Fold these 2 entries.
Entry 1:
Amino acid sequence: MFTYTARPAHIVFGPGTLEQVREEVERLGRSRVLVLASPDLAEPGDRVEKALGPLAVGRFDGAAMHTPVEVTEQAVALLREAGADCVVAVGGGSTTGLAKALAVRTGVDQVILPTTYAGSEVTPVLGETVDGVKTTRSSPDILPETVIYDVELSRELPVPIAVTSGVNALAHAVEALYSPDANPVIDGMALDAIRRLARGLRGLAEDTLEARTELLQGAWLAGTCLGAVGMGLHHKLCHTLGGSFGLPHAPMHTVVLPHVMAYNAAAAPDAMRRIADALGATDAPTAVYDLVVAAGGPTSLRELGLAESDLDRAAGLATAAPYPNPAEPTRDGIARLLRRAWAGERPA
Ligand code: NAD
């Protein structure tokens, strides 16, 4: 038995689609836009503002990691002062998080132009930080109305970030395949995402438009999986490591994913066989590890700054509350997994 609910997002995909941003805001019946960007993405923010012409009535470049509420409050004040009825966000998951936080507080519509592969733009989930503590909520009001995937814009993402962000997307598709909510629609999207993301990651060495197209399309499909079905151990572990130890989001996903796959392999043989097929390999966890190594991505939590002395606490935090996962997350098992991931060993 399964249930499936399609989510009502409008997607525009292709090179140069940033130029359609004004038309997309008008399609929503909105006319006063607050443009959101981050300090790193001021230039694409300028391009979006120009393409919006007179529809742009304000600009906020202060989006920050993990959507701190103090930043959201500043942006809400600016939004109200400008009388905006829509936000257009250009950036990664951090900027998308700010757009969602504004939409859920004020009811404005959202048009998102993603520059990474995090996938937040197609989920109804918002993670926010209050006094350093991250809380997550889900609501249909949080899901952005429109997403413009401009492949040209995504080419500006530096290759090292594209590698880790691409593996972050891969993790959504992998965990969707062994989710308790798995269903044929999402399985199909997840497998197509894995094929595209693997081709895109391999193609990053030459960094062609084709590789970036595969990555962005894979990211959209994988993000849709993330928004549709519950995730397992991998996302739980990364949430813990990000929240409690401040590890960077996409690099941490990149290191942890092959190890979680190895942990789950015996308990989810069918999913692992389908993932291996999609990767053109025989063993899914080592195939993902090798893909990361070949793309020059990080392989150890040590290199991301996690102290060896934190491993035990991390294992405790990650197993403090039960959650669905193919293999039971035991404290000893997770401690072993984390140690291998910390040292950068091949998954086993
Ligand atoms: P991010 O938005 O912080 O971007 C990562 C880095 O890439 C940043 O330094 C950013 O400045 C840089 N960057 C992005 N685009 C660039 C470009 N074109 N050129 C140069 N640099 C660029 O991080 P992310 O990995 O995209 O997203 C992670 C955040 O999103 C986390 O807070 C995570 O919790 C959240 N997230 C939420 C969901 C959800 O469904 N709610 C899903 C995925 C991620």
Entry 2:
Amino acid sequence: MRPRIVVTRKIAEPALELLRETGEVWVPEPDRALPTEELHAAVAGADAVVSALHDQVDGAFADAAGPQLKVVSTVAVGYDNIDVPALHARDVVVTNTPGVLTDATADLAFGLLLSVTRRLGEAERLLRARTPWMFHPRFMLGTGLQGKTLGIVGLGQIGRAMARRALAFGMDIVYTGRRRADPGVERELDARYVTLDELLRTSDVVSLHCPLTPQTRHLIDADALATMKPTAFLVNTTRGPVVDEAALADALKRGAIAGAALDVFEKEPEVHPTLLELDNVALAPHLGSATTETRTAMAVLAARNAIAVLRGEEPPTPVRS
Ligand code: GLV
Ligand code: GLV
């Protein structure tokens, strides 16, 4: 019998083609984020699920699918929405899509950083409001990056790609994380391993690239923000809950830090109302990996992961527990 493959969001056509060669593919019509009840009904009888980062994938999800479920393949690098131990306990393989979105996400992080430091959003709002203006030597001065220190929290693939971009802009790199990077990586990036406290105290830009885990939830809280320099910027392109968003909004409003560049939010799609009022914040609606090329590559990798497991093979990028 051909396997039943449930794809919870409409993904790039080349990936759907691959899946259709392997099994009976179901995609929601119209495309939308399925609420939990509908999601559970949709996955019933599935041998494979290709999921999205807003799907809550836990024991109840796996039980709703049934004992034939072999793989959950998320089209994302982050898998904080997946209860991996609960799935592994049911012999379900979990896979994600690392690597293929590294450059796109680092590009977006650096672009948002430039947007806030050079006040691009604020400048565009000024023009669109048809505010009278004229070139002026002290008009809308921003902050330069050359010679400044970038502090990277989590020197994984995306953190390293961010560091490479920062090096090209003449920045110095410090980093922190669960463990020290290989000496070769430190040499390539001229990066110094420091404690989180030292990173927060000394960085002109703090950029978050760690996954969301119980250990990193609210890693950047009111205390961490108070430790940062008043001239420093925070960049978050990982997951919203790594930052206490209310504390961040308060710090930005008081000028306790200079600004923030945010692609992710604590309760997506909601954004803390104070952030929407402030000019020292650059905002994007979770677009880190959102290029046509990257989303296609992610979808194809997710399809390959699901197909490999259905064939009894080792998938290219499994999540280990
Ligand atoms: C996007 O946020 C991802 O985890 O891929
Ligand atoms: C892996 O792709 C990472 O998040 O660093």
